[in-house]
Sequence to fold (268 residues):
Amino acid sequence: MKIGFIGCGNMGGAVMEGILKSGKAEAKDVLITTASNGKNFERCQRLGVGIAENNAQITSTCDVIFLAVKPYIIEGVLNEVKASWRGEGQLVISVITGWNLARLRAYIPEGVDILNTMPNTPCLVGEGVFALNMDADLTKEQFAFVEDLIGDLGTVVYIHENQIEALSGVCGCGPAYLYMMIEAMSDGGVAMGLPRDLAIKIAAQAAIGAGKMVLETGMHPGALKDAVCSPKGSTILGVHALEKGGLRAAAMDAVMVTTKKMLEMANE
Ligand SMILES: NC(=O)c1ccc[n+]([C@@H]2O[C@H](COP(=O)([O-])OP(=O)(O)OC[C@H]3O[C@@H](n4cnc5c(N)ncnc54)[C@H](OP(=O)(O)O)[C@@H]3O)[C@@H](O)[C@H]2O)c1
Fold:
């Protein structure tokens, strides 16, 4: 089975590297295109994957094709490869924000199956979220195949097409918000005398630990927060400082504005 990547930058590269690391595909079975000979190209060379001469080489030879270019580029790419699809038996997996099934189908011939998805960059370290559109016209076996292919990249979830933007607001953009939180907490640690590298390390580990506590105990995050706050203790003062700074409203706003932006992109 040949796997192609049209676009192999932050997201496409994370998915490609994750699949190679998981052993679900070998470098010799992967073919990619990038636009330039820059760092993404160099990474692909280092990993030993095939580099296609053009996008049409991917659509004419690969069985599974990831679309991972920027949203404003995809229309040009799909027009460019229009006549080169092999057809029956090919599966397109798109990670492109704002491109739903109908929009993709307008450029991809019937016979080529399409699944639109929403992953996030922590797929690179096996801790991503990979959302699959359960409304896609795929068989159970095809969904199982995709789940197996990308399963080691993180948690696979199924969503309806009309939930994709809200999901991306939380977990597509979410890593950026959490990096800011980790950076800000480590700034606080540095202000109070910790060396920077230690402060970043423990703030990041606290974030991992908190996430695991939520997932593994099944407890509500509010209850877990309460469990850290002793009466008259220090944490509750920190909680007050965060509330005063508007952390919750800011985090909700961040998810809501990004979701609205993605809905706008989907309707452009
Ligand atoms: N980043 C995220 O966290 C995230 C999360 C979910 C979904 N997505 C989606 O993933 C897609 C890619 O985003 P990204 O952040 O990975 O962007 P990116 O890092 O800029 O990667 C885009 C890739 O497309 C390549 N490219 C540009 N023009 C091309 C062309 N005409 N033919 C073939 N390849 C071409 C680029 O080549 P060069 O390397 O030569 O520039 C690069 O490898 C977007 O549609 C985005 O909505 C991203």
